[in-house]
Amino acid sequence: MSENEMKLVVVGAGGRMGQTLIRVIHETPSVTLHAAIEREGSPFLGKDAGELSGVGPIGVAVTSDPLQAFLNAEGVVDFTAPAASVTFAGLAAQARIVHVIGTTGCSADDEEKFTAASRHARVVKSGNMSLGVNLLSVLTKQAARALPAEGWDIEIIEMHHKHKVDAPSGTALLLGEAAAAGRGIDLASQSVRVRDGHTGPRPGGTIGFATLRGGSVVGDHSVILAGEGELVTLSHSARDRSIFARGAVAAALWARNKKPGQYSMLDVLGLSNQ
Ligand SMILES: NC(=O)C1=CN([C@@H]2O[C@H](COP(=O)(O)OP(=O)(O)OC[C@H]3O[C@@H](n4cnc5c(N)ncnc54)[C@H](OP(=O)(O)O)[C@@H]3O)[C@@H](O)[C@H]2O)C=CC1
Ligand SMILES: O=C(O)C1=N[C@H](C(=O)O)C[C@H](O)C1
């Protein structure tokens, strides 16, 4: 290990993203896996993180003591669950390190806690860490701005694997926010998240969401702008979870020398002014 390699902790190390992160960190020269964390009672505790993720033994055993790990690390990469991410945010603030949060399905209350933690930690949070989806959000904002709300309806469709527990996906909401920003409207009051039964005609100016779940789909998203007699569809298909892990590692490295604060993947990618 070279002295300049950034020491990262992966929390939720046994999960789908946790294992992918361990693989990506292992193959990225500028970072090193400092610790791998799972919850108390997890069957992964004590196992070698490299063996768990398929890269072979790396001499880092999975433990359940995040604070101890954070105090000697420079960053934590967190794709777990909302309550866990809130706890990790408090600990990352205590340790004054970088906290990259990929967890989705967080409440407004959780978001306030991340903001509070960002007084001391450098927090990078995004519903999608891939370059492609962040570019798609820029294109969505531009399309929503260019096509008039009267006559052009916006619908967002997403499909994910059958294990996903939150809906709409963090990405769908991120794309919804981009469309709302392009239109200059408030997403929370203008979104239609569910349709069932006699709904009546579509209210003009709203942004609709549709959720599909099944099989092993990594993550598909489409933004449809539907006009009279024509459709514009902007879409992204994730084929491999390493796109999210590579983005998260890039985010940790980017935030390494930043001031405490809350940042997005658009900041990391230099796309926030688009
Ligand atoms: N922003 C992005 O680019 C992406 C975001 N995601 C999001 O990341 C999250 C995780 O997804 P995925 O990997 O598929 O889910 P998994 O369920 O496969 O993994 C989550 C892991 O976190 C662990 N965990 C939960 N609570 C704790 C805790 N308190 N302490 C330590 N470990 C804990 C789980 O353990 P246990 O099983 O014991 O609960 C599990 O191993 C989801 O919110 C998903 O939407 C996913 C991909 C990309
Ligand atoms: O749970 C997943 O798997 C994914 N979650 C994120 C989301 O909610 O958008 C990102 C990606 O699509 C995969």
From TrEMBL:
The EC number(s) this enzyme carries: 1.17.1.8
Reaction catalysis annotation: (S)-2,3,4,5-tetrahydrodipicolinate + NADP(+) + H2O = (2S,4S)-4-hydroxy-2,3,4,5-tetrahydrodipicolinate + NADPH + H(+); (S)-2,3,4,5-tetrahydrodipicolinate + NAD(+) + H2O = (2S,4S)-4-hydroxy-2,3,4,5-tetrahydrodipicolinate + NADH + H(+)
Entry binding sites for NADP(+): 39
GO cellular component annotations of the record: cytosol
Pfam families for the chain: DapB_C (PF05173), DapB_N (PF01113)
First-tier enzyme category under EC: oxidoreductase
Active site, UniProt feature: 160 (proton donor/acceptor), 164 (proton donor)
InterPro entries tied to this protein: DapB_C (IPR022663), DapB_N (IPR000846), DapB_N_CS (IPR022664), DHDPR_bac (IPR023940), NAD(P)-bd_dom_sf (IPR036291)
Metabolic or biological pathway: Amino-acid biosynthesis; L-lysine biosynthesis via DAP pathway; (S)-tetrahydrodipicolinate from L-aspartate: step 4/4
Signal peptide (from-to): none
Gene Ontology biological process: diaminopimelate biosynthetic process; lysine biosynthetic process via diaminopimelate
Domain Dihydrodipicolinate reductase C-terminal: 132-269
Source domain of life: Bacteria
Presence of keyword NADP: yes
Positions contributing to (S)-2,3,4,5-tetrahydrodipicolinate binding: 161, 170-171
SUPFAM superfamilies named in the record: Glyceraldehyde-3-phosphate dehydrogenase-like, C-terminal domain, NAD(P)-binding Rossmann-fold domains
Residues the entry annotates as binding NAD(+): 12-17, 38, 102-104, 126-129
Keywords, comma-separated and alphabetical: Amino-acid biosynthesis, Cytoplasm, Diaminopimelate biosynthesis, Lysine biosynthesis, NAD, NADP, Oxidoreductase
PROSITE patterns: DAPB (PS01298)
Subcellular location: Cytoplasm
Listed GO MF terms: 4-hydroxy-tetrahydrodipicolinate reductase; NAD binding; NADP binding; oxidoreductase activity, acting on CH or CH2 groups, NAD or NADP as acceptor
Family the entry assigns: Belongs to the DapB family.
Quaternary state and interactors: Homotetramer.
Function text: Catalyzes the conversion of 4-hydroxy-tetrahydrodipicolinate (HTPA) to tetrahydrodipicolinate.
Full protein name: 4-hydroxy-tetrahydrodipicolinate reductase
Name of the coding gene: dapB
